[in-house]
Amino acid sequence: MNVSYKPVIGISCGDLNGIGIELIIKTFSDARILEHCTPVIFGSNKVINFYRKSVPEINLNYQNIRELNRINPKQVNIVNCWEEDIIITPGQLNEAGGKYAVKSLHAAVEALKKNEIHGLVTAPIHKKNIQSADFNFTGHTPYLKHAFGAKDVAMILFAGDFRVALLTEHVPVSGIAGHITREAILSKLNILHESLQKDFGIEKPRIAVLGLNPHAGDEGLIGQEEETIIKPAIKDAKQNNQLVIGPYSADAFFARHQHSKFHAVLAMYHDQGLIPFKALASGEGVNFTAGLPVVRTSPDHGTAFDIAGKNKADESSFRTAVFECID
Q1: Residue 302 CB: number of other CB atoms within 10 A?
Q2: 117 by DSSP, 3-state: which?
């Protein structure tokens, strides 16, 4: 492969006290990945060196760069987004972990906007300590929606041919029903349908929609959302020439492996979709943000503070996220 044609993939470092840096070191220590992309890590070589001590058997070669026009396509590149020393406390939720995660993310997104990198892989952040006057989002997905001025986006978790999209993301359970609207469902279905065609190469996608209530409402006996909102939205999608079927009762749907008959599933809320996905995806799931004008992926897990700095983190999902971003 001619290195001049390799995509430049940006990496944000995530919470400095989580497993993100360890995942980055383990993934890019395999020099074979340089045959497929040129990695640019937005962070600090000091942080990288701190975590290299916890994985002494792994050797990561890199170069520091100040300007993105100095990227070396034959090496891992690190853009130092800050120069000050930071006290790193693996496994601890604190202000510094979130503050510098946001600095890394901001720098990577600015580079993505300027087309200085061709895709972005984000390491895990914690929803609480990233909050500030400059960052009042509940996660990467709403932040990226805002940063790129997208009307709507869809969080899609996928592993192979198993894909789950979410109607609502980080919403308290008590507030989920208030976010279930006909317009919101149709918007997500439109994004999901287009993404399956454009990003996953599926000419005629089949999409399943889950109900909100137990047993998908039992014809209105256990809640009215299926009858008054979800079914009409599915009808709207069908009128847009989309092959959409539902609503299905979530428990029976996954228990009977009906997801294997569809190209994607639209779940009504976070745990309804992600508990079965993570149980069935065997640790290699990838989070993809559909609806953006750019490519962003991430692993399907969080900061894992309980194992941070202990050389126990499995980089499988992160590595897969990198290759899916390249693809």
Answers
A1: 15
A2: coil
Contacting residues for 254 by C-beta, under 8 A, at least 6 apart: 276, 280
137 and 1 assigned to the same domain: yes
Q: Which two tokens stand for residue 269?
A: 């809320």
**286 and 297 both lie in a single domain:** no
Do 274 and 296 lie in a common domain?
no
Q: What whole-number distance in Å separates Cα of residue 322 and Cα of residue 109?
A: 16
pLDDT at 103: 96
Domain that holds residue 210: 154-290
Predicted local distance difference test score (pLDDT) of residue 308:
96
Q: Which is nearest to 325 in space by CA: 117, 169, 110?
A: 117
What is the number of alpha carbons within 13 Å of residue 282 lying toward its C-beta?
Answer: 4
Pairing mode, if any, of strands 162-166 and 62-65?
unpaired
pLDDT of residue 282: 79
Per the document, the length of the chain is: 327
- CB within 8 A of 320, min separation 6: which ones? 284, 285, 286, 299
pLDDT of residue 307: 97
Residue 4 confidence (pLDDT): 53
Spans in the chain with pLDDT lower than 50: 1-3
